């Protein structure tokens, strides 16, 4: 790439949605349905047809609030308890009440959910308390359904553009975003009245134990762009120390998946074939028990199915090997793993940020608004806990409808041309160098240090070393070299990952207690300290550009939770281990 | 520092007898979330250009002629 002036196209829209995976398309769809005249553009780093966490569909809804099985109040209580009380209940309630209407909407569009003989949804129990799982054995077509609806509603789409920074107007409201084409290096500046961030998890934060950088749980394209953009724009991010850490198929690093197999009788077992946790629903406490079992000499931990009947196993295979991560079957085949004969070896994943399964993210209220006027966040990167795919759809829909209304009340803001020039220079800097350090090695080193120093159990002195080492890598950015647009994409992602690593360290150091089981287990602050830390922790960039923190009080609950109920998720370990069969 | 290149094995394999990239097909390249596939300008066939595969399989599922096979990357097998 040469050092000439960047090619730049500037376009205008009303609503810009950044990210075309799950929540993003739904935000665009619901904005268009609210106001068909609204100009809506989806900017996608890959291709909307197959991008994001559900590129190959989904094998089930993990948090469906279906009348007759659960009420929104029960769901809000369960999620509050599973997250040690640190939740913005109004946002969880907004999700819970929108859950069933969204299932019906998706059903109408052609997404297939499991139903019984009388056409009722076939709900299953996986959570500790309530019944929220709805299988999708034919859930491989979700992206096709979304894409068809985007086309029908004439939503504009730009594929292969990576958004790099948000633009703001003179009054601090959102004014659009800067994008760069990952195949040509050309810029697309989108001026907009409102922006929905839907960029997915920070899934390339820790390094998988295999050492393979793209062997992540999350779609590896979801590397935390949304967190970094929100941070640099001045938005607040909540509870980032509540990491995502998942129990996954060892080496394959994908879900095994207990939510699918649990209702059929499969379960998580130790090397004796014994059950050691009462509930396979992913929570910090569940991960703590998983980690303890690995430490105890009873490891490895397995997903056990070899006691099930042949018809059951065939059904499980069909679901797991055709949806979400279909290459699971290929992995097992090569290893000689057969669910009938041998349990599947599992392991603890590397760390990441993802509210889909955890509780951290860009702070949003019950209307998906961030702390910046006109900026919304949805899906895995927004702070609504345990949101999964259905949460991305519901909150995406909420954001789209609210943003449509917001757009009606504002004019297109001006943006700072000096900021745009500086951003273009930052983006292109790695392309101005003939040699230096590659994005690959700078990313590898950052993520290796994340494993070495940030993984729980968290130790203060180690996290401080991490901060020093990350600062050294930041200095090395002056040598980062990208020889073509693809390497530029990775160079920009690497900087996003470094931002997220710094946020993970700073957020973890700020909360001087232990909470959320394994997710924030601080060895030198082992107790949960409700007196000082029963609050959200907010991380933001202050006026001097420093990473700063503040506490945010938890809003009064809309669903009260009794003291003794609050401890339900703390008693996950099976009391006296019993034989599996 | 000067940059060097190193050999890697390709997890995504394209059957060139079946690949119809010479007719203008770019489906596998279009759908890859990590943008790791490309069309070889000389041979006019699709190939895996970057060792950044998430083994997610849209390339294989969407290929109109069944030319693409996704293998689990060696480091994970």
UniProtKB/TrEMBL annotation, chain A:
GO MF annotation list: electron transfer activity; flavin adenine dinucleotide binding; succinate dehydrogenase activity
Gene3D superfamilies reported in the protein's UniProt record: FAD/NAD(P)-binding domain
The organism's place on the tree of life at top rank: Bacteria
Alphabetically ordered keywords of this record: Flavoprotein, Oxidoreductase
Cited InterPro entries: FAD-dep_OxRdtase_2_FAD-bd, FAD/NAD-bd_sf, Fum_R/Succ_DH_flav-like_C_sf, Fum_Rdtase/Succ_DH_flav-like_C, SdhA/FrdA/AprA
GO biological process: anaerobic respiration
Domain Fumarate reductase/succinate dehydrogenase flavoprotein-like C-terminal: from-to ranges: 457-557
Pfam families xref list: FAD_binding_2 (PF00890), Succ_DH_flav_C (PF02910)
Residues in FAD-dependent oxidoreductase 2 FAD-binding domain copies: 14-385
Cellular component per GO, a single term: plasma membrane
Annotated PANTHER family: BLR3196 PROTEIN, SUCCINATE DEHYDROGENASE 2 FLAVOPROTEIN SUBUNIT
NCBIfam families hit by this protein: PRK08275.1 (NF006131)
Stated name of the protein: Fumarate reductase/succinate dehydrogenase flavoprotein subunit
Source organism: Methylopila jiangsuensis
Automatic annotation (TrEMBL), chain B:
Keywords: 4Fe-4S, Electron transport, Iron, Iron-sulfur, Metal-binding, Repeat, Transport
InterPro entries: 4Fe4S_Fe-S-bd (IPR017896), 4Fe4S_Fe_S_CS (IPR017900), Fe-S_Ferredoxin (IPR050572)
Keyword Repeat: yes
4Fe-4S ferredoxin-type domain residues: 10-42, 44-73
Source organism, top-level taxon: Bacteria
Single Gene Ontology MF annotation: 4 iron, 4 sulfur cluster binding
Name recorded for this polypeptide: Ferredoxin
